[in-house]
Amino acid sequence: MRVCPSCSSENHIKSGIINNRQRYKCKDCNYFFTVDKIGKKIDDYYVNKALQLYLEGLTYREIERILGISHVSILNWVKKYNIKRPSNTKYHPTYKILNAVELGEYFSNPLNIKGAGAVVTELGDKFMLIQWERFRD
Ligand SMILES: [Zn+2]
């Protein structure tokens, strides 16, 4: 996820192209920053995250929404790395995007983690908690 180098906010708008690089303006602190234009190789970090989420049972569209990566790219990586997951129509995880404090609060309540599995994965400056309730029903 693209964040402002000045304040780490994800809240920004496109603001022209400078030297073939997309420029953004942070809506929170008004800082201008640029990133390489689309076409640059996507960081392996996102490839790993996308495949991780795919294995967790998320759909291409969900991964696209979370990571901001085209579902077509994700589909191509799944093919490229020959990732297969068992077909299971009943299993589908729920997920939450939390910051470090919220994550701590979540885990401090035993009811939240009882009878359910959870994995936490870093996501930009926040964390994603994926949870499933395999033994319910
Ligand atoms: Zn900012």
Task: Please write the CATH class name of the largest domain.
Answer: Mainly Alpha
Mean pLDDT metric: 82
- CATH architect. name of the largest domain: Orthogonal Bundle
Shape: flat
- SSE ordering: EEEHHHEHHEE
Q: List the strand order in the largest sheet.
A: 1-2-3
Number of strands: 6
- Hetero groups: zinc ion
Question: Considering DSSP H and I runs of 4 or more, what fraction of the residues is helical?
Answer: 25-40%
Q: Summarize the main sheet.
A: 3 strands, antiparallel
Overall tally of structural domains: 3
Question: What percentage of amino acids are in beta strands?
Answer: 25-35%
Give the helix/strand class. Answer: alpha+beta
- CATH fold annotation of the largest domain: Arc Repressor Mutant, subunit A
Through-space gap between termini: 36 Å
Radius of gyration: 18 Å
So how many helices? 5
As residue ranges, the low-confidence spans are none
Task: Give a short overview.
Helices cover 31% and strands 27% of the residues. It has 137 residues and is an alpha+beta fold. It folds into three domains: 1-40, N-terminal domain of TfIIb (Single Sheet), CATH 2.20.25; 41-89, Orthogonal Bundle (Arc Repressor Mutant, subunit A); 93-137.
